Amino acid sequence: MVSLKDIIPAAGNTINTQFIVLDKERSPSTKQGQEKSCLALVADETASVHFQLYGTECEVFEPGDIIRLTNGIFSAINGNTFVLRAGKRGRAEKIGEFTMVFAETPNMSEISWAPDPNNSGKLVQESVISPYSRMFPPRN
């Protein structure tokens, strides 16, 4: 299992991890001819990230659920927004609820990624865009 703080954007489905759902968009979006999707804020004990849910996952997974992701992918959607998702070959399944230590910072989706100067096929962290999720800001 990989910690969320150690994920990096890549083209392949290779991420095996588990996390707790902290928050979720209430209104799934649907583009014409496409399956509905929504974003969730998820975290483990090392970091948080935006997790993209598709289809029935938008209704099934709720805040407090502990999810195991197998063969997940961390990649860009809409150009430069990085999200973790199961993708076509991955699988997300609920394995528990409510009891998990987590950290909301850093948020891996709020990091600017750039090509590695030593390996153009790999991305590295360039800078922090925001210390917390701008989509799911902390509640006071």
UniProtKB/TrEMBL annotation:
Keywords: DNA-binding. The keyword DNA-binding applies. GO terms for biological process: double-strand break repair via homologous recombination; mitotic G2/M transition checkpoint; response to ionizing radiation. GO terms for cellular component: chromosome; SOSS complex. InterPro entries: NA-bd_OB-fold, SOSS-B. GO terms for molecular function: DNA binding. This is SOSS complex subunit B1.
